[in-house]
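Appendix C reproduces, verbatim, an entry submitted by the partner laboratory led by Prof. M.T., so that reviewers can inspect both the input and the predicted structure.
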Amino acid sequence: MKTQKYAQDSIVIISRIMLPEDANAAGIVHGGVVMKEIDNAAGVTAIRHTRKICVTASIDRLDFYKPAFIGNLLTIKASINYTGRTSMEIGTRVETENLLTGVKTHLASAYLTFVARGEDKKPVKVPPLKLVTEEEFRRNREALARRKLRLAEKRKESGCRTDPDKC
């Protein structure tokens, strides 16, 4: 069994100014631009935890709460919530900051599942997560609940493909 690793050791904070090419004609940043930054930050977190190439397996949930605009500083904080055998859940929080006023706004949150890959490109075991703080334990419990729902949904979808009457 691999040595446990602390969640705090793989936390990533990435910031980027939003420019005209990131936005529509009204100056509102495209959701896809935000999604790409979320995926980048979560991917770095996964690689930091495993020290392996990691790929996005799914985005379980992505909720937008407010828009971002040209000139805003977009900041993504990503941290690991759960580790399985070869996969892990990364939670992200996205904030925007109006650099002229200093006002920060919670823009979005997302949960992503990543799979670690070996040199042969096949899934490899990931180090278990060492939980320390109450927040880490809470996030881990919530991640386990999301995983349970994801797996149940996949089983249902698989059943629907084999027997449409089950749907």
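The first strand starts at residue 5 and ends at 6. Additional entries are available on request from the coordinating office.
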